[in-house]
Amino acid sequence: MDRIKSRNHGLKAMVETYGCQQNVNDSQRLMGMLVRMGYELTENREEADLILMNTCAVRDNAEQRVLGNLGAIKHLKAKKPSLIVGVCGCMPQQEHIAQKIKAKYRHVDLIFGTHALYRFPSLLAETLEHRERVLDIGGESAIAEGLPTLHEGGAKAFVSVMYGCNNFCSYCIVPYVRGRERSRRAEDVVAEIRELAGRGVKEVMLLGQNVNSYGLDRGEPDAFADLLRQVNDIDGIERIRFMSSHPKDISEKLLLAMAQCPKVCKQLHLPLQSGSDKVLKDMNRRYNTEKYRNIVNRARELMPGLSLTTDIIVGFPTEKREDFDATLKILEEVRFDSIFSFIFSPREGTPAAKMKSAATEEEISARFQEMLELQNRISAEINSRCEGEIQEILVEGESKHEPDMLSGRNYANKIVNFRGDGSLKDKTVKVRITKAQTWILYGELV
Ligand code: SAM
Ligand code: SF4
Ligand code: F3S
User: Fold this and answer.
1) Engineered SS bond to 284: which of 150, 170, 194, 268, CB 3.0-4.6 Å?
2) CA of 412 to the centre of ligand 1 (A)
């Protein structure tokens, strides 16, 4: 390692991340490995000696963005032939994409998938030593504990508790690019969070594609509820969040753990995807809207004031107008704090990609718009109800868009801006909410 470190001394590396929080967490590992290999990190492509793109394949627009950026850095390689360009993550884990990148983007030196993440140092060494293009998308991923992770600093951190997905929702590429579910041992997760708390982290977001099945691969049902309780006991940690929860196997035990653990934020991201039972069946989601409503009712009974968010796909191939109307109806009824909405994007190799669409592109984008308008109204109404409330805010720092203000998050993970001193960064403060908008709350320190 020392030899590698001295060889890389003075070299700069940049990791560009696309996609979900799990990818952000993977990039933190990649950056941790790079620092251990002697690289200095940069956010400037022009000065980088190594650019690594950690990619997302969930929708076509995510892939197009990566390919566009990959094209844009070609001239950098022409200017600096020693530059190493790598592409990793979910996109190249699909064989046809890996081959496309290899054939059409000749300036890419290193291609590897999610399963090879922990092999990155040796793949990079191979590329550098032999000056050959390296491709590694094989193998079923294991769990590699103890990888150096470069948490961003500050008071918040992502912690993956499991990898992969077994659900095969008919539209989704994730199970194909992330492999089967693999849960980390609770001891390892707890040890990592203890260490983070020792470094000043106050809020952890526990990550998995479906945390409700955490432990099932080790024969331990309801292990996530137990894990929440263990994390709740860690000194220094003030807030615990998690995502995502699949409605098909959220349990009473989990809702009880959420309700009973004071550090667990009363906030639940529970992806619904559609309000039509027919479409849910075609999506292979394995719950219906009645089950979904029952979970919401029970969760709200246990946790009054619970903040709820969800994911919705518009334009799934079998979605007809009446199915879409059912989605609008359930949004009105459940009243989510906010939704993440996506237009269906066919992913090669998934069952839904072969289905014929029941609606035209124009119809689908009109539906999308209609849903956003409805949800914006609901979000604004929900937010306006908290005007006058005093809330605990974990301060993140200067607001990005309003530099004369501080920005932080409340229990519901909503952004709250207020005037205050920069020294409050990473502290928990009390703020009275004075004005609410659809996406942001304003307040004053109390
Ligand atoms: N595992 C999480 C779950 O089931 O809730 C979701 C992970 S996925 C990265 C995030 C969201 O992307 C999904 O909930 C879904 O709404 C959306 N999504 C996944 N595949 C999609 C596709 N092919 N087209 C449009 N949206 C998609
Ligand atoms: Fe994709 Fe479904 Fe797995 Fe979520 S649960 S990652 S939507 S297959
Ligand atoms: Fe994208 Fe991979 Fe996450 S496909 S959404 S980065 S698991």
Assistant:
1) 170
2) 21
* pLDDT tens sequence across 50-60: 999 999 999 99
- Ligand 3: residue of 27, 90, 311 to mutate (most ligand atoms within 8 A of CB) is 90
Instruction: Provide the residue ranges of all domains of the chain, joining segments of one domain with +.
Output: 2-136, 390-445
55, β-bridge pairs: 89
| pTM > 0.90: yes or no | yes
Distance 23 CA to ligand 3 centre (A): 6
Nearest ligand 2 atom, CA 244: 4
Q: Write the pLDDT tens digit of every residue in 355-387.
A: 999 999 999 999 999 999 999 999 999 999 999
Give the number of the atom of ligand 3 that is nearest the alpha carbon of residue 54.
Answer: 6
Residue 94 CB less than 6 A away from ligand 3: no
- Alpha-carbon span 50 to 14, nearest angstrom: 6
CATH 3.30.565.10 fits 390-445, yes or no: no
- Quote the ligand 3 centre to 358 CA distance (angstroms): 27
Q: Indicate the class that CATH gives domain 2-136.
A: alpha beta
Q: At what angle do helices 223-232 and 186-198 cross, to 10 degrees?
A: 20
Residue of 78, 53, 67, 141 lying closest to 101 (CA atoms): 67
Q: What is the pLDDT of residues 142-189, one digit of tens each?
A: 777 888 888 877 899 999 999 999 999 999 999 999 999 999 999 999
> Which tokens is 237 given?
């940690």
Check if the beta carbon of residue 352 is closer than 8 Å to that of residue 389: no
Q: How far is the CA of 281 from the centre of ligand 2 (A)?
A: 14
Residue 421 DSSP SS3: coil
Q: Tens of pLDDT along 118-155?
A: 999 999 999 999 888 999 988 777 777 888 888 877 89
How much is the pLDDT for 2?
67
Q: What is the pLDDT of residue 1?
A: 66
**Chain centroid offset of residue 107 CA:** 29
Hunting for tokens 């990039």 — which residue is that? 27
Query: What amino acid is encoded at 195 in this protein?
Result: E
Q: Is 23 in the pocket of ligand 1 (CB under 6 A)?
A: no
CA-55 nearest atom, ligand 3? 6
Cα of 177 vs centre of ligand 1, distance in Å, is 13
Cβ pair 354, 317 in contact under 8 A: no
